[in-house]
Amino acid sequence: MGKNLLSILFKPFLGGHKEIKPPAEIGNETAITLSMMESGCIFVFVEGSPVLILKCSGEDMAALKESDAISLGFELLERSEFPCITVTITVDIASGRQFRFDYYFSLESEEEKGLLGLLRDREYFDILYYDEDIERVRRAALTDAQRTELGSLLAGYGG
Hints:
Blueprint: H1 2-14, H2 28-36, E1 40-46, E2 49-55, H3 58-65, E3 69-77, E4 84-92, E5 98-106, H4 110-121, E6 124-130, E7 134-141, H5 144-155
Parallel strand pairs: 2-6
Antiparallel strand pairs: 1-2, 3-4, 4-5, 6-7
Helix pairs in contact: 4-5
């Protein structure tokens, strides 16, 4: 009886820390893109969900896997040759170190606008840490403010 009561009391705190299974496959096109990158990030659809893949190796990967906080920022770049929404991913490490990645979603690409729309409509997205293979999978939450900001940027471009 005591164990059941404890699990009921702690359930709201433990819900976000469930084991996240790595996807069965990230897709050939994504694997080829990752093989050409030394370090960086890409957003892709994996098994119908928006996924951020962070790629690096060695000490940087070890630090990334132990990160404390991940935040996203959005900015609209209205260039006539390449209108896009920049997503800035900031990863804070316990040691005070910080990693920053920028990813550019083309607003001329229906696929990329669809990915942004799916990201806007979700409360979370998964992050894959990648170095020749998936090293770790983590779930990151999107705040209401972040989803609202992304929604207003997309609304200006019919997203």
